[in-house]
Specification:
Elements: E1 6-9, H1 15-26, E2 30-35, H2 38-49, E3 56-61, H3 67-81, E4 86-89, H4 105-133, E5 136-141, H5 154-174, E6 179-186, H6 195-198, H7 201-208, H8 219-230, E7 241-244
Parallel strand pairs: 1-2, 1-4, 2-3, 4-5, 5-6, 6-7
């Protein structure tokens, strides 16, 4: 399904990003994974390459908040076989949890830089390559918080909503060139980023208590949707936000 394809997945040293890299490799893709810390990134690459998949994980240390790092990442990926077929903007942070009136400009700027500007920078760099080759898939990992405000998480909800509109705007303009742009909006997934909501038993039970699917979401459940959006199986899908939340928003 993905043999001969080249993909970039940001924030891939753990959680959803690592799971997405794994399924793309399973189908034969060469996946450039990036993260800030060399040690954790190398460990992730070791786990991924140890799965025995036909594809490979190629680690590139890159801070998504630094333009030079992203330029180097794109350059290395393009040099692999002259193509860039898939971009997954997964890297995110949530350093501002609490009452909305307690956030300051430092937190605001950091959230924008990591959750929104990094995706914009990478798309601006990679989309022209995809346009020139007449194909490509860009996948932005948003959140249900971008569709409904998450309690005590103003900046996270705001940035994830911006990512959804970015998805739609790029899809509108890039579609005629054969480039598809979609988003995934996960609900509560068991990752380090969201442990504030699932590690505490009472808080987790409040989230899952009325949710139709009563289990805590797992990274692989997002990864399989990402694979579908990355592949030709979704050739008529663009500008969409796929909600993967166990039915949470229904309640």
């Amino acid at each position: 399904m993905m043999k001969g394809k080249t993909a970039i997945v940001t924030g891939a040293s753990r959680g959803i990003g690592e799971a997405i890299a794994g399924v793309l490799m399973r189908e034969g893709a060469a996946v450039f994974i990036c993260g800030r810390k060399a040690e954790t990134l190398e460990e992730a690459a070791g786990r991924l390459n140890g799965l025995g998949h036909s594809g490979q994980a190629i680690p590139v240390v890159a801070h998504v908040g630094k333009a030079a790092d992203l330029e180097a990442l794109v350059g290395r990926a393009k040099a692999h076989n002259g193509r860039l077929d898939v971009l997954v903007n997964n890297a995110a942070t949530n350093i501002a949890q609490g009452p909305c009136l307690e956030f300051g400009e430092v937190q605001f700027d950091k959230m924008i830089e990591t959750n929104v500007k990094s995706a914009w920078r990478l798309t601006q760099a990679i989309a022209p390559v995809m346009v020139a080759q007449g194909s490509g898939s860009i996948i932005n990992i948003s959140s249900v918080a971008g569709l409904r405000p998450q309690p005590q998480s103003l900046l996270y909800s705001m940035t994830k909503a911006a990512l959804i509109m970015m998805t739609q705007s790029y899809a509108l303009e890039l579609g005629p060139s054969g480039v598809r742009v979609n988003a995934i909006a996960p609900g509560l997934i068991q990752t380090q980023l969201s442990e504030f909501y699932w590690k505490d038993d009472a808080r987790r039970d409040r989230f899952l208590g009325n949710q139709p699917m009563r289990h805590l979401g797992q990274p692989i459940e997002i990864a399989e949707i990402a694979l579908m959006l990355a592949s030709g199986k979704s050739s008529y899908v663009t500008g969409q936000t796929i909600i993967v939340d166990g039915g949470y928003l229904l309640t």
